[in-house]
């Protein structure tokens, strides 16, 4: 069994100790070294050649973002950011994902051992996924051109998107080309509380459509994208002739909250063939069964191609189940969604 070699960069000695204990508790990985700042880390990377780097967001001597930017330019490698649940922390973390970090994890409440087992398991999963991540696909993320407006689409047409590891950038790449006349979009990205609002606000500044964190009971409108809040399931429901957002505080599904399966199952039930389902990069199998249900209900379904995924987990599981009507490279998904919606509407005129 090949060991995953990890290097931790964090200015907190306590966090370095905790991360070392957690990493070394997994039989398939080891902490080869730890550094209090990026300057020390630079030499340790040369010495130990780690498979994955865990990187604190805010550190002395050199900001985590500056170090990440230099690292991705000079010595690209999988990086998992370790972030605090603060407004500044979430903004910097999202910027780090844009610069090439594979994933992030929030810092635990130090001194509180309850829940450390599940936290350790989560770190293990993220490091394993990061060690297998495809870094070359970042070249696809250049800002795409805005697509031409499609024929008027009624509010009954909508798109459901699910993603996990690598999904923040994949979602940006799908949303950024969409015209203001785009159908409504409901999006579940595996993300903890404290980050989804910043994620939505960042996308809203970059896109022609309006992007916002979803609110319970609000009407689903064309030209809008609704992001599932962290720790809340996002569902589609009907209110008369209109679609509405429903937020659900139920238990995790497939160990995730929000869960892509919860979103896709609700869209299959209430939108059927009026919807398109898209499953993007991510580890695990969340969303695969829900995409099957969408396809069975008459929806057109798209899985991101392996070549364009950071982690080809969720799309692969969907493809294995026969859930995907087509498999598409990331940079072509926006065009495929709108073309399919336009074709569906033309058939019904």
Automatic annotation (TrEMBL):
SUPFAM superfamilies: CheY-like, Methylesterase CheB, C-terminal domain. The active site is at 164, 190, 286. One of its GO terms (cellular component) is cytoplasm. Keywords: Chemotaxis, Cytoplasm, Hydrolase, Phosphoprotein. It is found in: Cytoplasm. The modification 4-aspartylphosphate is found at residue 56. Residues 152-344 form the CheB-type methylesterase domain. It comes from the Bacteria. GO terms for molecular function: phosphorelay response regulator activity; protein-glutamate methylesterase activity; protein-glutamine glutaminase activity. InterPro entries: CheB-like (IPR008248), CheB_C (IPR035909), CheY-like_superfamily (IPR011006), Sig_transdc_resp-reg_Me-estase (IPR000673), Sig_transdc_resp-reg_receiver (IPR001789). Phosphorylated by CheA. Phosphorylation of the N-terminal regulatory domain activates the methylesterase activity. GO terms for biological process: chemotaxis. Its EC number is 3.1.1.61, 3.5.1.44. It catalyses: [protein]-L-glutamate 5-O-methyl ester + H2O = L-glutamyl-[protein] + methanol + H(+); L-glutaminyl-[protein] + H2O = L-glutamyl-[protein] + NH4(+). SMART domains: REC (SM00448). Residues 5-122 form the Response regulatory domain. Pfam families: CheB_methylest, Response_reg. Belongs to the CheB family. Contains a C-terminal catalytic domain, and an N-terminal region which modulates catalytic activity. Involved in chemotaxis. Part of a chemotaxis signal transduction system that modulates chemotaxis in response to various stimuli. Catalyzes the demethylation of specific methylglutamate residues introduced into the chemoreceptors (methyl-accepting chemotaxis proteins or MCP) by CheR. Also mediates the irreversible deamidation of specific glutamine residues to glutamic acid. This is Protein-glutamate methylesterase/protein-glutamine glutaminase. It comes from Izhakiella capsodis. The lineage of its organism: Bacteria, Pseudomonadati, Pseudomonadota, Gammaproteobacteria, Enterobacterales. The gene is cheB.
């Amino acid at each position: 069994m090949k060991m995953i070699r990890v290097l931790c960069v964090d200015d907190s000695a306590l966090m370095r100790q905790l991360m070392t204990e957690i990493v070394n508790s997994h039989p398939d990985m080891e902490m080869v070294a730890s550094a209090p700042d990026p300057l020390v880390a630079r030499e340790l990377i040369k010495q130990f050649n780690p498979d994955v780097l865990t990187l604190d967001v805010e550190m002395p001597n050199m900001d985590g973002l500056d170090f990440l930017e230099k690292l991705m330019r000079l010595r690209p490698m999988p990086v998992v950011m370790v972030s605090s649940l603060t407004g500044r922390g979430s903004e910097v973390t999202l910027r780090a994902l844009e610069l090439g970090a594979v994933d992030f994890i929030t810092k635990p409440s130090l001194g509180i051992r309850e829940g450390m087992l599940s936290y350790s398991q989560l770190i293990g999963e993220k490091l394993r996924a990061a060690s297998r991540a495809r870094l070359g696909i970042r070249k696809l993320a250049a800002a795409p051109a805005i697509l031409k407006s499609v024929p008027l689409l009624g509010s009954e047409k909508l798109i459901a998107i699910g993603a996990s590891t690598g999904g923040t950038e994949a979602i940006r790449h799908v949303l950024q080309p969409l015209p203001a006349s785009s159908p409504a979009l409901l999006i579940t990205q595996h993300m903890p509380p404290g980050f989804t609002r910043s994620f939505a606000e960042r996308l809203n500044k970059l896109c022609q459509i309006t992007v916002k964190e979803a609110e319970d009971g609000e009407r689903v409108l064309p030209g809008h994208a609704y992001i599932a809040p962290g720790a809340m399931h996002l569902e589609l429901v009907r209110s008369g002739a209109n679609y509405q957002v429903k937020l659900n505080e139920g238990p995790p599904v497939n160990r995730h909250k929000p869960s892509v399966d919860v979103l896709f199952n609700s869209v299959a039930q209430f939108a059927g063939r009026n919807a398109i389902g898209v499953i993007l990069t991510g580890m695990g199998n969340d969303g695969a069964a829900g995409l099957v249900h969408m396809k069975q209900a008459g929806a057109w379904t798209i899985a991101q191609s392996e070549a364009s995924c950071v982690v080809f987990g969720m799309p692969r599981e969907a493809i294995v189940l026969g859930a995907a009507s087509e498999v598409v490279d990331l940079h072509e998904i926006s065009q495929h969604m709108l073309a399919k919606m336009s074709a569906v509407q033309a058939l019904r005129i």
